[in-house]
Protein backbone atom coordinates (compact mmCIF):
# COMPACT_ATOMS: atom_id res chain seq x y z
CA UNK A 1 0.00 0.00 0.00
CA UNK A 2 1.24 3.46 -0.90
CA UNK A 3 -0.01 6.96 -0.20
CA UNK A 4 0.16 9.78 -2.74
CA UNK A 5 -0.93 13.40 -2.25
CA UNK A 6 -4.22 14.57 -3.64
CA UNK A 7 -2.79 18.05 -4.26
CA UNK A 8 0.58 18.88 -5.80
CA UNK A 9 2.78 21.66 -4.47
CA UNK A 10 1.66 23.78 -7.44
CA UNK A 11 -1.99 23.18 -6.50
CA UNK A 12 -2.77 20.69 -9.27
CA UNK A 13 -5.26 18.02 -8.29
CA UNK A 14 -4.35 14.34 -8.41
CA UNK A 15 -7.68 12.63 -8.94
CA UNK A 16 -9.45 10.05 -11.05
CA UNK A 17 -9.37 12.07 -14.28
CA UNK A 18 -5.56 12.18 -14.08
CA UNK A 19 -5.35 8.52 -13.06
CA UNK A 20 -7.20 7.23 -16.15
CA UNK A 21 -4.02 7.12 -18.24
CA UNK A 22 -2.20 5.26 -15.47
CA UNK A 23 -5.07 2.82 -14.98
CA UNK A 24 -5.56 2.03 -18.67
CA UNK A 25 -3.45 -1.10 -19.07
CA UNK A 26 -4.10 -2.31 -15.52
CA UNK A 27 -7.84 -1.88 -15.89
CA UNK A 28 -7.82 -4.48 -18.69
CA UNK A 29 -7.38 -7.06 -15.92
CA UNK A 30 -10.44 -5.80 -14.01
CA UNK A 31 -13.80 -7.55 -14.46
CA UNK A 32 -15.75 -4.94 -12.49
CA UNK A 33 -15.39 -2.06 -10.04
CA UNK A 34 -17.17 -1.53 -6.74
CA UNK A 35 -17.43 2.11 -5.77
CA UNK A 36 -18.36 3.73 -2.49
CA UNK A 37 -18.45 7.51 -2.82
CA UNK A 38 -19.00 9.48 0.33
CA UNK A 39 -18.26 12.96 -0.96
CA UNK A 40 -17.02 14.40 -4.23
CA UNK A 41 -17.33 17.30 -6.66
CA UNK A 42 -18.33 16.78 -10.27
CA UNK A 43 -21.05 16.45 -12.86
CA UNK A 44 -24.03 14.38 -11.77
CA UNK A 45 -23.00 14.43 -8.11
CA UNK A 46 -26.43 13.60 -6.74
CA UNK A 47 -26.96 10.72 -9.17
CA UNK A 48 -23.56 9.19 -8.37
CA UNK A 49 -24.04 9.57 -4.63
CA UNK A 50 -27.36 7.75 -4.87
CA UNK A 51 -25.80 5.11 -7.12
CA UNK A 52 -22.95 4.40 -4.74
CA UNK A 53 -24.90 4.16 -1.48
CA UNK A 54 -24.16 0.66 -0.28
CA UNK A 55 -21.64 0.20 -3.11
CA UNK A 56 -22.25 0.33 -6.85
CA UNK A 57 -20.90 -2.25 -9.28
CA UNK A 58 -19.57 -0.81 -12.56
CA UNK A 59 -17.98 -2.28 -15.67
CA UNK A 60 -14.50 -0.97 -16.58
CA UNK A 61 -16.14 1.24 -19.22
CA UNK A 62 -18.65 2.55 -16.67
CA UNK A 63 -15.80 3.23 -14.24
CA UNK A 64 -13.90 5.20 -16.91
CA UNK A 65 -17.02 7.28 -17.59
CA UNK A 66 -17.41 7.93 -13.87
CA UNK A 67 -13.76 9.04 -13.61
CA UNK A 68 -14.30 11.62 -16.33
CA UNK A 69 -17.24 13.13 -14.42
CA UNK A 70 -15.52 13.47 -11.05
CA UNK A 71 -13.44 16.59 -10.59
CA UNK A 72 -12.40 15.86 -7.01
CA UNK A 73 -12.96 12.90 -4.75
CA UNK A 74 -13.09 14.01 -1.13
CA UNK A 75 -13.81 10.59 0.39
CA UNK A 76 -14.39 7.40 -1.55
CA UNK A 77 -13.21 3.89 -2.31
CA UNK A 78 -12.84 2.39 -5.78
CA UNK A 79 -12.08 -1.34 -5.81
CA UNK A 80 -11.28 -3.28 -8.98
CA UNK A 81 -12.01 -7.03 -8.99
CA UNK A 82 -10.88 -9.98 -11.06
CA UNK A 83 -13.52 -12.58 -10.34
CA UNK A 84 -14.08 -12.32 -6.60
CA UNK A 85 -10.55 -11.09 -5.83
CA UNK A 86 -9.80 -7.40 -5.27
CA UNK A 87 -6.74 -6.55 -7.38
CA UNK A 88 -6.69 -2.77 -7.06
CA UNK A 89 -8.00 -0.31 -4.50
CA UNK A 90 -7.97 3.47 -4.71
CA UNK A 91 -9.14 5.20 -1.55
CA UNK A 92 -9.45 8.99 -1.28
CA UNK A 93 -9.03 10.18 2.29
CA UNK A 94 -10.40 13.56 3.40
CA UNK A 95 -9.32 15.31 0.18
CA UNK A 96 -5.74 14.97 1.43
CA UNK A 97 -4.26 11.80 -0.04
CA UNK A 98 -4.93 8.55 -1.87
CA UNK A 99 -4.18 5.12 -0.43
CA UNK A 100 -3.46 2.78 -3.30
CA UNK A 101 -3.22 -0.97 -2.95
CA UNK A 102 -2.39 -2.87 -6.12
CA UNK A 103 0.39 -4.82 -7.78
CA UNK A 104 3.92 -3.63 -6.95
CA UNK A 105 4.28 -2.53 -10.59
CA UNK A 106 1.23 -0.25 -10.46
CA UNK A 107 2.14 1.09 -7.02
CA UNK A 108 5.63 1.96 -8.30
CA UNK A 109 4.20 3.78 -11.32
CA UNK A 110 1.87 5.85 -9.16
CA UNK A 111 4.51 6.61 -6.53
CA UNK A 112 7.08 7.66 -9.12
CA UNK A 113 4.62 9.83 -11.03
CA UNK A 114 2.80 11.53 -8.13
CA UNK A 115 5.31 11.27 -5.28
CA UNK A 116 4.73 10.09 -1.71
CA UNK A 117 2.22 11.74 0.58
CA UNK A 118 3.96 13.46 3.46
CA UNK A 119 1.73 14.39 6.39
Protein topology:
Blueprint: E1 2-5, H1 16-27, E2 32-42, H2 45-52, E3 56-58, H3 60-69, E4 70-82, E5 85-93, E6 97-101, H4 104-114
Antiparallel strand pairs: 1-6, 2-3, 2-4, 4-5, 5-6
3D structure, described in words:
The protein has 119 residues and is of the alpha+beta class. It contains 4 helices and 6 strands, in the order E-H-E-H-E-H-E-E-E-H. 34% of the residues lie in helices and 38% in strands. Strands 1-6-5-4-2-3 form a 6-stranded antiparallel beta sheet. A hairpin with a 3-residue loop joins strand 5 and strand 6. The longest helix has 12 residues, at 16-27. The chain starts with a strand and ends in a 5-residue tail after the last helix.
β-sheet strand percentage = 35-45%
Q: Kindly, what is the distance between the CA atoms of the first and last residues, rounded to a whole number of angstroms?
A: 16 Å
Derived structural class: alpha+beta
Shape summary: globular
Contiguous uncertain segments of 5+ residues: none
Query: Order of helices and strands, N to C?
Result: EHEHEHEEEH
Give the integer mean of the pLDDT values.
87
- Main sheet record: 6 strands, antiparallel
Tell how many strands the DSSP assignment holds: 6
What's the gyration radius in Å?
13 Å
Number of helices: 4
Amino acid sequence: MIKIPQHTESGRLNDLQRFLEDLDRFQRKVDYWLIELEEFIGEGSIAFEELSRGGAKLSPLGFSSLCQCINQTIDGVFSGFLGDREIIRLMAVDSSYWEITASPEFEDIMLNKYGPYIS
